[in-house]
Design brief:
The chain has 906 residues and is α/β, with parallel strands linked by helices. It is built from 32 helices and 29 strands. The structure holds one RNA strand of 76 nucleotides.
Length: 906
RNA sequence: GGGCGGUUAGCUCAGCGGUUAGAGCGUCCGGUUUACACCCGGAAGGUCGCAGGUUCAAAUCCUGCACUGCCCACCA
């Protein structure tokens, strides 16, 4: 046990040392054959492109707290780490990096590009995992996975082929969200609706063979170039005579029909709508119903295509202006009105997406969603906080097919091969010939899968599926999924669907959705917006343990987390407090050794396991109280963690350690530690060490580094490896010692009362003064038995114990129903402050008593409220009345005194 | 257009049916108590957004309103 210990906690060196040691020793390697109930959790795989941001830090902190807690409780715990290949994100990063080097990725070609990405991944893709090691996360690094590794790719192909064979994956031309910047289709979830104020352009379409014209309104005038009809409601009398006639499409002079369709809203605008089947979801459906041609007027990169005639080549927004200008010139623009509408933007690049009919791969979701709804309904998967259940159900019940193909190069290549005759062969391995016509002229589909496709398989693909592995049998279904609520649909819902479909089991038994971490302005932290904070910088500044503790304390469900330096600072102070409590033990080792106690003795398991109730009676009050509090706190922390109430668990240990262990217990037993009576001193040391060591274990899941370091500095059994493998304090209810808690808090009240008077009198804290305590025999005897501690902690020279009523004369008094404490004062003190205070207190008490009396006088209350509530109220009322009488007498006395002195005249 | 949160001490937030509503920071007063000034002791500070209702009992449950944040949505 080292004697030299720095005065303040300096986390950096300690953290680095333990982080490395834990990995080197493979301390957290899970053994599928180990004993104990299983706790398994897979990480929400971070993107390889990123570095660790505060959101990850929160995820990982909560996961790690629970993993360490379970491990310490004897669970066979697995925390499986890994990363996501992050299709679009990674491709975007690489394209940019290459561009910076003057390389056009398209010219590089697909194969060379992929090679570059892999190379980059090897060099830079490990940032996050390195950072996770630094953070000391208790993952099993031997089981690290990557969504694009050969093993996981195999799972992806297996799933794709099976779904295709069942008809749940299909290919076809449908309306998709097209991002002209990323140049790929994206899913509905990846488009973010943004409210914008724009215009509604009203355009005249002349009806051929008449003098009439119809007016259509549109938010995207350039799409008129792709119109293949205009539509009216079949029962709209205004236009009934026009149905079946043709209109001349302005600018292009194309003749298109006027059709009747129920999807037209007669109330909106003129009741006539232009139909652009290739660029609007409603029009697409209408186009199918009426057999209209689809004219795609766009190119992949958002310019106008050949189909746009004279507008070919124009950028889409330039084309809009030109179209409007030309319509205006031809007098075909009736009016422009203001209009707010929601525009879809690309989640990745924020550019406006274009609805576009395109041939893509889709997954049928309804059949997959049904069982996924059922398992949550039936509680096979518990979602916390509960309000997310409703959100989940809502989305799942209205789920639409998922566009899974992406026009990218980085990702899982779709396992489909096209032959020259247009047949498609879907296979697990590259086929030699077309399954339909036998052609050997095959080309693999160029598209890759949406990143979330492989993420959806994560809980079982990482454990070895599709093989029937030991890991899968032992660790699947996983115990819990912890992630931010913003990927409930993207990821959580899809994992549930895929897990059920392919393993017949839920992927996890519980989902905990935590809040987002926002900055001081309440904005979502984001690197692109420059509003992010670097958690590693904060860790360096305040210590990882302080950061972890802050996040845990703030992880209360419901609200978002707003991080501030002040808050982290207060938990850095907490870490320092723990450090200094340890320091107290270490710097007093000479006193400790003087008692003849050995370190071996302290490390003995029977001392550690000492169950307080066995010792009760033999122990001094302070120790009985402390052990009881320890048990109660352990009980509460365990219960809180069981229910994922991290903030409550953290609060509880914080208050226990600082407010009870340090502020009261250590101060209380200090003299005993140096007592002449060695047996007494030894017992005090033993208990102090035992409580401190237990407190470290209690704290360990929250503050792994600090506790590991201090635990190793304490005497430990030979071969004891890590606090992380030690037992978590249990807090059995049989350890609670209510009598000791009651007595200790009474003594504390007396001490606080004395301190209060001292502060009021502005006494020099070192100056010891005499006081008088009036109380019943029971309390007097309690105080008498603990007189040394009371005198010392209240800085009293003596405490006279008296019975009966306290005479009203002289000194400052603090009273409760149980006792009166009086301290004499010199003549210089001004009593007016005290009088004001007492008056205020008297009013408050009078009001309180009045309301309690009223309650108790209420017959309905007495008959309906539970007995213990009524009795509790009665006894409280009695106490208040006692306090009130004492206070009234004191006040009268003081007022008289002031009045006589003439000081109250003013 | 639907839905979900939030509104509690100067600030950031806990508490979510039962006796005098809590924490951290900040404020004020007093401290070189040999573990800790990242500290110690004491104190001040709140008609729990507003209005109704349910209940013996409401910060806590219900309804409405007002701000405020977010999610979902194919009305041109």
């Amino acid at each position: 046990m080292p004697r030299e210990i720095s005065k303040a906690y300096e986390p950096q060196a300690i953290e680095q040392r333990w982080a490395r040691a834990w990995v080197d020793e493979k301390l957290f390697r899970a053994d599928a054959r180990a004993q104990g109930p299983v706790f398994s959790i897979v990480i929400p795989p971070p993107n390889i492109t990123g570095s660790l941001h505060i959101g990850h830090m929160l995820d990982h902190t909560l996961i790690d707290i629970l993993t360490r807690w379970h491990r310490m409780r004897g669970f066979n715990a697995l925390y499986l780490p890994g990363t996501d290949h992050a299709g679009i994100s990674t491709q975007r990063v690489l394209v940019r990096l290459l561009a910076e080097q003057g390389i056009d990725y398209r010219k590089l070609g697909r194969e060379a590009f992929e090679k570059r990405v892999w190379q980059w991944k090897e060099e830079s893709g490990g940032t996050i995992t390195r950072q996770m090691v630094q953070l000391g996360e208790s993952c099993d690094w031997t089981r690290e996975r990557f969504t694009l590794s050969p093993e996981l790719s195999r799972a992806v192909r297996e799933v794709f082929v099976r779904l295709y064979e069942e008809g749940l994956i299909y290919r076809g031309k449908y309306m998709v969200n097209w991002c002209p910047v990323c140049q790929t289709a994206i899913s509905d979830l990846e488009t973010v609706h943004e409210e914008r104020t724009g215009h509604l352009w009203h355009i005249r379409y002349p009806v051929i063979g008449t003098n009439e014209q119809v007016v259509v309104a549109t938010t995207r005038p350039e799409t008129m170039l792709g119109d293949t009809a205009v539509a009216v409601h079949p029962e709209d009398e205004r236009y009934a005579h026009l149905v079946g006639k043709m209109v001349r499409l302005p600018l292009l002079a194309r003749e298109i029909p006027i059709i009747a369709d129920r999807y037209v809203d007669r109330e909106f605008g003129t009741g006539v709508v232009k139909v652009t089947p290739a660029h609007d979801p409603n029009d697409f459906e209408a186009g199918r119903r009426h057999n209209l041609p689809q004219i795609d007027i766009l190119t992949d990169d958002g310019h106008l295509s050949k189909a746009a005639g004279p507008y070919e080549g124009l950028e889409r927004f330039a084309a809009r202006e030109k179209v409007v200008e030309d319509l205006k010139a031809q007098g075909l623009l009736e009016k422009i009105t203001n209009h707010t509408y929601a525009v879809g933007t690309c989640d990745r690049c924020k550019s406006v997406i274009e609805p576009r009919a395109s041939t893509q791969w889709f997954m049928k979701m309804k059949p997959l969603a049904e069982p996924a709804i059922a398992v949550v309904e039936h509680g096979e998967i518990e979602i916390t906080p509960e309000n997310w259940r409703a959100v989940y159900f809502e989305w799942m019940r209205n789920i639409r097919d998922w566009c899974i193909s992406r026009q990218l190069w980085w990702g899982h290549r779709i396992p489909a091969w096209h032959c020259e005759n247009g047949h498609v062969t879907v296979a697990r391995e590259t086929p030699a010939k077309c399954a339909e016509c036998g052609s050997t002229n095959l080309a693999q589909d160029p598209d890759v899968l949406d990143t979330w496709f492989s993420s959806a398989l994560w809980p079982f693909s990482t454990l070895g599926w599709p093989d029937d592995t030991e890991d899968l049998r032992v660790y699947y279904p996983t115990s819990l999924m912890i992630t931010a609520y913003d990927i409930l649909f993207f990821w959580v819902a899809r994992m549930i669907m895929m897990g059920l479909k392919f393993t017949g089991q839920v992927p996890f038994r519980r989902v905990h959705l935590h809040s987002l971490v926002l900055n001081a302005e309440g904005q979502k932290m984001s690197k692109s917006k420059g509003t992010g904070v670097d958690p590693l910088e904060l860790n360096r500044q305040f210590g990882t343990d302080a950061m972890r503790f802050t996040l845990a304390v703030m992880a209360a469900p419901g609200t978002n987390i707003i991080l501030s330096d002040e808050r982290i600072l207060s938990y850095r102070a907490f870490a320092n407090k723990i450090w200094n409590a340890a320091r107290f033990l270490f710097v007093n080792l000479d006193k400790f050794e003087a008692t003849g106690i050995t370190l071996e003795e302290l490390a003995a398991p029977e001392v550690r396991a000492a169950s307080p109730h066995r010792l009760r009676g033999a122990l001094p009050l302070a120790d009985r109280w402390m052990f009881s509090r320890l048990a109660r706190v352990a009980h509460k922390v365990n219960a809180a963690l069981e229910e994922l109430r991290f903030h409550e668990a953290a609060h509880t240990v914080y208050h226990f350690f600082w407010g009870e262990f340090c502020d009261w217990y250590i101060e209380w037993v200090k003299p005993t530690l140096a007592a002449e009576n060695h047996e007494e001193a030894r017992a005090a040391w033993r208990n102090l060490f035992a409580v401190f060591e237990a407190a470290l274990r209690l704290l360990h899941p929250f503050m792994p580094f600090l506790t590991e370091e201090l635990w190793h500095r304490l005497p430990q059994r030979a071969g004891a490896k890590s606090i992380a493998l030690d037992r978590y304090p249990e807090g059995r209810e049989t350890w609670f010692d209510e009598e000791a808690e009651r007595q200790a808090s009474l003594l504390q009240e007396i001490i606080v009362a004395a301190r209060n008077i001292r502060a009021e009198l502005k006494l020099d804290p070192r100056k010891k003064v005499a006081a008088e305590l009036t109380a019943d025999a029971h309390i007097r005897s309690l105080v008498h038995d603990n007189l040394d501690a009371v005198l010392r902690l209240a800085a009293l020279s003596e405490l006279k114990l008296t019975s009966g009523h306290l005479s009203p004369k002289g000194g400052l008094v603090r009273s409760t129903a149980q006792f009166d404490l009086r301290m004499a004062y010199g003549q210089a003190e001004d009593l007016r402050g005290e009088v004001i205070k007492l008056r205020k207190e008297k009013d408050r008490l009078a009001k309180d008593i009045e309301s309690k009396k009223q309650r108790l006088a209420d017959e309905t209350f007495r008959s309906r409220a539970p007995e213990n509530i009524v009795r509790g109220l009665e006894s409280t009322l009695h106490e208040r009345e006692v306090e009130y009488r004492k206070l009234r007498d004191r006040l009268a006395h003081l007022e008289k005194q002031l009045g006589e002195g003439g000081a109250a005249a003013s």
